[in-house]
Amino acid sequence: MSKRVYISADYSVNNGDRDVVDELHKWGNDNLHKVNYVDTAEVVSGSVSNDPDCRPCELKKEFNNQINASSAVIFVVGDKTASRLAGSTCNRHNGKARCSCTPYKQNSKGMSICKYDEIYTPRSNNNLGNINTYSYLEHEFRQSVLMKKTIIIVYNSLYNQKSWLPSYMRNFSTEAVPFWTKNIWGNKVGNYSYIKKALGYD
């Protein structure tokens, strides 16, 4: 039976971690490992963000939906992950009535009035509220913890890079491992044996 696994990573063109995500998708598509990977970039490019008026909070709500539908979440941590703040600006979170925000695609219309009239604090058994000042990456992590998902953290490195961990992941530092390793020929390869075991296939 195929497992659905969500991947959270930094997709910035410069210094992003797409190489790890591409390797994971390659494994998932080989008909051997039976893993259906869904990543942040796929969600962002999907139907929600096709709306030119899509807001950051609407993306976060869709992240929640995709994480909830997954059995595990893989977080790829690179040397720039801790400094990524995209999605962290939200005037509505501060309780400002009739506040404005910039649509996700920052279209030519510029700032727009918030779509929400009120905010609420979720109960412990609910989703993380999508109106918040967390970055997209932090939101995904907190939602995964809240929903008690299997969490796998890998460094985009051949070595342990504890200093790369954002503050909100520090409690998981002992579980984080390098994604890359070297095979018997000295070539850099993804550590699939670790991922497979973490997903419960061993």
**How large is the radius of gyration?**
18 Å
Mean pLDDT: 84
Distance between the termini: 14 Å
In terms of per-residue confidence, which ranges show pLDDT below 50 for 5 or more consecutive residues?
none
Continuous helix count: 6
Percent helix range: 25-40%
Please give the number of β-strands.
9
Strand content: 15-25%
Question: Structural class, from helix and strand content?
Answer: alpha/beta
| Strand/helix succession | EHEHHHEEEHEEEEH
The best one-word shape is elongated
Main sheet specs: 5 strands, parallel
How do the strands line up in the largest sheet?
A: 2-1-3-6-7
Q: What are the main properties of this structure?
A:
about 25% helix, two-stranded antiparallel ribbon, 9 strands, alpha/beta, about 15% strand, 5-stranded parallel sheet, about 200 residues
